[in-house]
Predict the 3D structure of the following.
Amino acid sequence: MKKLEIETQIEKASTLPSAFYKIRPSFEKSQEYIFARTWQYVADASVVNKPMDTYPFTFLKNVLDEPLVFTKDKENQMHCLSNVCTHRGKIVVEEAKKQRMLSCMYHGRCFRLDGSFKSMPEFDKVEGFPSPKDDLTKIPFKEWAGMLFVALEPTVDFDAVFGPMQERLSWLPLDKLTFHEPSSQDYMVNANWALYCDNYLEGFHIPFVHPALNEALAFEEYDYELFDYGNLQLGVAKEGEPCFDIPPSSPDYGKNIYAYYYWIFPNLMFNFYPWGLSLNVVQPLAYDKTLVRFRTYLYEGKNIEDWSVNQLHQTEMEDEAVVESVQFGIQSRYYKSGRFSPTMEKGVHHFHRLVAQFMNTE
Ligand code: FES
Ligand SMILES: [Fe+2]
């Protein structure tokens, strides 16, 4: 596979080659080189609310397929563990439930809720047993704003990745976000995950693709800011449209901000509105199939009915249609790659540079 090269100067750069999106080997390489190394959203933290709760899940189903389990021990400490028994490899926790310890139902090996080995029948004569290898591996995780994030082999600390967003929004009541399940839904998109991200990372297409959203946003004031592992698009509201009430402590004081659109490499989109957060998790299923999970979180005292969540659905339908059209278009023998608008496609360029950086790092 050819090394990916993206010029650092946007005026000179070309986009990722179409082969990156349309051939299986580059998708397979991206699983290890991008997805095993970065922070992924798993679930709302309420899945392990109380001591002795356990929550098994598959990390990036269909792609990395890593069986993991969240547990909360008796001291209320949370753990994220490999969910594969260290004896012969059975899945230890098959369903979310309360339990004092984790027992494998194949030959009876038991683990404490922190993953350490506890007991095993018929193993008295085994030499050098138990050893640390018999514990369940601990997996790096982070609980933030009531959400759970996991990384298998993170190359960058959670705080280094999420810090700029946390700092900028420190005035928002993010510790009191509540997950609103009825308005959360999943979308299946017939396109490569990175095409979905490309589209998200520019507001260039808003006047062409989203007529209703375009009515609310002041296009001339739309702005982009880049940080190490993510970027921000600032949507400024037109006169009379809903916007944040921003305190003087924020660098955005005085601006009529309609939304903060934060993207975290490689596939997390945090869209903050005056009513709460719409989180979009762009989960690859295959090189040409992507599951986009919309998760709605509300600030305390905000009511979902008061806000136009319907508009998010409409915008999503419009985005999916263009992204699927691009998926078809890039199959063409005549399309190899394109160029960037230096004013409107900074975020896409930033994404392509990060993709190249991760894919080229052994
Ligand atoms: S595989 Fe778990 S006890 Fe044998
Ligand atoms: Fe869009």
User: Anything to note?
Assistant: Residues 85, 87-90, 104, 106-109 surround FE2/S2 (inorganic) cluster (ligand 1) (CB under 6 Å). Helices lie at 18-22, 24-35, 158-168, 193-200, 206-209, 211-216, 309-329, 346-359. The first helix runs from residue 18 to 22.
